[in-house]
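Title: Prediction job returns without error message
Component: structure pipeline
Severity: low
Priority: P3
Assignee: unassigned

Description:
Job completed but the reporter wants confirmation the result is attached to the right record. Sequence as submitted:
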Amino acid sequence: MREILIIIRREFLERVRSRAFLIGTLIFPVFIVGVFMLPAMGNRGGAKQTLVLIDQAPPPIGDRFVALLTAETDSAITNVFTVERATGTLEQNRDRLVERANAEEIDGWIVLPANILASNTLVYRARNVANQSVLRDIRNAGSEALQAERLRQAGLDRGDVVQLTRRIKVEEAAIASNGRGRGAQATFFYAYIVAFLIYFITAFYGMNVLRSVLEEKTSRIAEVMISTVRANHLMAGKVAGVGAAALLQVGIWVTFVVLLVTRSDLITRRFGVPREILAALTIPIGQGILFLVYFMLGFFLFASLFAAIGAAMTTEQEAQSLQFPILVPLFLPLILSPAIAGEPLSPLATALGLFPLSAPITMPIRIASAHIPPVQVAASLVLLALGLVAVVWLAGKIYRIGILSTGKRPSLAELVRWLREA
């Protein structure tokens, strides 16, 4: 036992003291800030647009269009438009408009053609036509102006029609024992983020185990260590040490998320981040414990597989060829996350949740999306634990022989022979 603790300490300190660990620990907070706050900070002020209007449409349309486009709002991120009217046709004004646009006196021009009611099309030209919010405002103002004129010609009041045809609002939320649960968007976001983090940490640190084993094997350090430490103890200590470093990193990230959520009022007020998105980061204690259990079982399962691959292969190129097939069962639930989160009790979601290699990702998505029958959760955990025991047993046999083997890459028949002889 003392040998295993020494190896755990060595592997843990080797990773925690590395620059890669520090950078990796900072990536998640930077990612959260980038996703939630930078767009809000970038949209603090709307664009200021100076446009020239060539109005050939029936009189009420142009007046209403200008009124809608230049209407004042209380929002700080709304685009501000200044509209100048030009007399004559576009052909008569084109050269002057192009000259003013090139001199940056105006941002563009709009033409309301005489047949706009029939064609349902206006013309917009701009120096920066890629600004989607400006294009949206122009489209909305034009649509409302045309609708109002069509309703007037039909003898209907636009205000009455708007009231009669209002779209219903759906205030959706998951059923929760302690009150109102998450909405649909927040639920999917929450489920996906949890699953992605489990996948990322498992894959990243699992491949760390592979590279560490392979490095020790190719540099012949393993031969020295095996002379004083049993092979299965070396593998167990290596996997546990790397797992401890992963847990420390997860703990730092969880602390950051807790601080972020507890300051939700300040963040919403200052950066405009919706409260529902911040609420999606809140993990109930029961779910958090389950997610941690799935993460730990899944990590040790895949880390053991990676340790066996590292011991069996002779070069990193050979090991890389087996990384993707090993990660497919772990990555597949992420690809299918919309289907799993949308139908967490479907046969597909249930099967992936019971299969040990895909359960560490599938079950957190299912648990975050809906109430899963306790018997399914228990069965999933039992099968995952049994799968872990089987993988550790098989990986230990391969590791025991493979860590000291050199030469060419072993064939499948040779791996089977190792399992029999170990």
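Comment from assignee: result matches the submitted record. The longest strand covers residues 48-55.
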